[in-house]
Amino acid sequence: MTAHLILHEYTQSGNCYKIRLTAALLGLPLERREYDILQGETRTPDFLANVNANGRIPVLQVGDRFLPESNAACFYLADGSPLVPADRFDRADMLRWMFWEQYNHEPNVATLRFWLAFVGEENLTELQRAMLPAKRAAGDAALKLMDEHLAGRFWFVGDALSLADVALYAYTHVAEEGGAFRLAEHPNVQAWLARVASAPGYVPIGA
Amino acid sequence: MTAHLILHEYTQSGNCYKIRLTAALLGLPLERREYDILQGETRTPDFLANVNANGRIPVLQVGDRFLPESNAACFYLADGSPLVPADRFDRADMLRWMFWEQYNHEPNVATLRFWLAFVGEENLTELQRAMLPAKRAAGDAALKLMDEHLAGRFWFVGDALSLADVALYAYTHVAEEGGAFRLAEHPNVQAWLARVASAPGYVPIGA
Questions:
Q1: Which ranges of chain B would DSSP assign to H, the alpha helix?
Q2: Which helix (H) or strand (E) holds B67?
């Protein structure tokens, strides 16, 4: 990889952390630019025109090209590395868990953490407050599905750490922030979290 | 591809159609098994134990292995074909649009079609009804972002049809069903829909 890499990010976002963790596991240097999403810094005309028309971080800048969507950025960094399985089915199965993460896990586990630990329950809209029980139930179901999948397995796909683990680790390991979820109810998940955290090159979310 | 392929599906689901369209564009034979999601046929103990613990279709069965998540199944079928760009950045950019589809497009454009054209507005829960305006606004924003991206472009990534187009085509071309969205407001999207529909091997959703 020869292009200069810049991560446009908000440090505490698990979606941004996925990319930093992938880069760290691969030993890739990453320049970082911080935006305060609570102050709307990713919705400015400049950001929308020059970084991401979708108004969101993370965005991985590769030279003069911009790549939004956390899991796509992780795939770009890890393509051809041991973090992407060489077997065709396993490679698709890795993506299966990454799509599942964005559809079933992130909108519940990550959103409740953001609403409760960052925005604050007292600042939620009426609609957001009405959505809390359904998101809590869906987040619990996602963690339970992970726990059942991990019974008797070390990693989500095949027998090695892959981007599926990185993508799911990011918001799972901070799922208790805000108080919506309890990881002690999911012992296989807890053991797997410890395995990811002991991988060579691992960096914590706040680093 | 030598393994026997079975698609566990519900024909009118755009997520299932993506996989049929990918297979058709590649000339791959696909056995099909239909489940009535309105009757809960993907939440039976048998389905949860043997097809998908997440209780959803589509699932692509490859021999005796099961692959949920529509975009992962498309990737499995198209891996190494011209539907996946050979260039590393473009390949990740294709995934970027596929992740964006599942996060920003499908939960709004597809969900409103399902709620309004299949479930029926009179059968929605109070919470679902409260979510209608936000989902309509987010779906409109997604279609607008697509329209702006397609200005001066034939395809979503690079200069050829890819899985990004297939994934986004599925629910966009039926976005008007249910009445929540008007494609005439997005002329670049309409022209692109016609281009996808004229690709060699194309099959319609009802086929």
A1: 14-26, 45-50, 70-78, 88-100, 111-113, 126-149, 163-172, 187-197
A2: strand B65-68
Q: Nearest Cα to A185, choosing from A143, A135, A149, A137?
A: A143
A95 touching B (Cβ < 8 Å): yes
List, for residues B121-164, the tens digit of each pLDDT value: 999 999 999 999 999 999 999 999 999 999 999 999 999 999 99
Architecture of the domain defined by A5-78: 3-Layer(aba) Sandwich (3.40)
The verdict on a CB contact (< 8 Å) between B79 and A88 is yes
Q: Whole-angstrom Cα distance, residue A9 to residue A33?
A: 6
Q: Across chain B, what does the average pLDDT equal? A: 97
B-contacting residues in A 137-176 (Cβ below 8 Å): 145, 148-149
ipTM: 0.97
Topology of domain B88-197, CATH = Glutathione S-transferase Yfyf (Class Pi); Chain A, domain 2 (1.20.1050)
Structure token pair of residue B9 = 């599906």
Determine what percent of chain B is predicted with pLDDT higher than 90.
Answer: 97
Residue-wise pLDDT for B47-89, tens only, equals 999 999 999 999 999 999 999 999 999 999 999 999 999 999 9
Residue B87 neighbours by CB distance under 10 Å: 11
* Residue A159 identity: D
Say if the Cβ atoms of B62 and A98 lie within 8 Å. no
- Asked if the C-beta of B89 comes within 8 angstroms of chain A's C-beta atoms, the answer is yes
Distance CA B110, CA B178 (A): 10
Q: List the domain boundaries for chain B.
A: 5-78, 88-197
Angle subtended at Cα B164 by Cα B19 and Cα B6, rounded to the nearest 5 degrees: 10
**pLDDT values of chain A reduced to their tens digit, one per residue, 207 residues:** 678 999 999 999 999 999 999 999 999 999 999 999 989 999 999 999 999 999 999 999 999 999 999 999 999 999 999 999 999 999 999 999 999 999 999 999 999 999 999 999 999 999 999 999 999 999 999 999 999 999 999 999 999 999 999 999 999 999 999 999 999 999 999 999 999 999 999 999 988
Q: Which A-chain residues 125-144 have CB contacts (< 8 A) with chain B?
A: 127, 130-131, 134
Instruction: Pinpoint the alpha helices (H) of A84-186.
Output: 88-100, 111-113, 126-149, 163-172
B107 near A CB under 8 A? yes
The residue among B102, B124, B127 with the most chain A CBs within 10 A of its CB, best to mutate, is B102
